[in-house]
Amino acid sequence: MQISSRVLSALVLCAAVGGALAQSSYPSSPIHMIVPFAAGGSTDGVARAIALKLSENLNQPVIVENRAGAGGTIGSAYVAKAAPDGYTIMMGTVSTSSVVPSLYEKLPYDAVNGFSPITEIATVPELMVVHPSVPAKTIREFVALAKSKPNQFAFASGGAGSASHLAAELFMTMTGVKMVHVPYKGSGPALVDTLAGHTQVMFDVVMTSHSYVQNGRLRALGVTSSTRSQVMPDVPTVAEAGVSGYEAVVWFGMVGPAGIPSDILQKLNREIVAILKTLALQALLTAQGAETVGSSPADFAAKIKLETVKWGKVVKEANITL
């Protein structure tokens, strides 16, 4: 009995030490970074830039996989069901983390509790832009004009429930303006029709719309973040232009399956935050109108919860269904 007890104790000790060594040696094999959208978009571009540097720093391949479809829920479901060992992570967005729970009645995963937040990567404000044929030069002028002509202005979006759609719905809720929603299969074709004047208004990310503002093909009325954009510092925020308290930004964040061990979660956080502090990443993000964040897992988790409540309210009030 004494020998058996000693053997059992030794086995338990070996298992504990082995587990500790396994986690301390993380990563010992390639990491898969899932992008729940098609290749070539803004989410994909940021993910690939981070993956390249993360691979160098960890001495392991970081493989970016695009698993697009169903508003990001296909890729999200894949990650939620993956082993929580740190070898499958995802570049999530405000849409996949905080909007989806309110848009879909049934999901094949727990959108609220099915993920381990790692860090918020960056925020990207949108621009409220109008076609030059719209006579309004400011937010206040537009609100007055639109109220005098209810449902005579059409706003384009990248699709029902998209960030551009929700930003416009929040604007209408807070101002009492009524416009007609014209959803497209992506922000690209929505922007094309706004440029052509087929739709008159759009909330579009700074990175794709600011060049058209600069060449006069669109007019910027306001930026949707709480502070002015570094790319367009002369454009006031929607809040300071007359809609107090308004804020609607697109954000990116790294998540993994729920239950990732704390030491692995913290290591991923440290490595990714360090990458975000490099001049190369900051230059890349700034060029796209984004601002780096690099928050702790706890702070990112808190933000996801707040954003989920905020956009859930907008979805309900606007009666958005998919």
Write out key terms for the chains shown.
322 residues; ten-stranded mixed beta sheet; 2 domains; globular; alpha/beta; 10 strands; D-Maltodextrin-Binding Protein, domain 2
What would you say this structure looks like, in words?
This protein is α/β, with parallel strands linked by helices and 322 residues long. The protein has 2 domains: 29-124 and 250-317, 3-Layer(aba) Sandwich (D-Maltodextrin-Binding Protein, domain 2), CATH 3.40.190; 125-223, D-Maltodextrin-Binding Protein, domain 2. It has 11 helices and 10 strands. It has helices at residues 2-24, 42-58, 73-80, 94-103, 139-148, 163-175, 187-196, 206-214, 262-276, 279-287, 297-317, and strands spanning 31-35, 62-66, 88-93, 115-130, 154-157, 180-183, 201-205, 219-223, 249-257, 291-292. Strands 1, 2, 3, 4, 5, 6, 7, 8, 9 and 10 form a 10-stranded mixed beta sheet that branches. α4 packs across α11. The longest helix has 23 residues, at 2-24. It is globular and about 65 Å long. The N and C termini lie far apart (65 Å). 42% of the residues are buried.
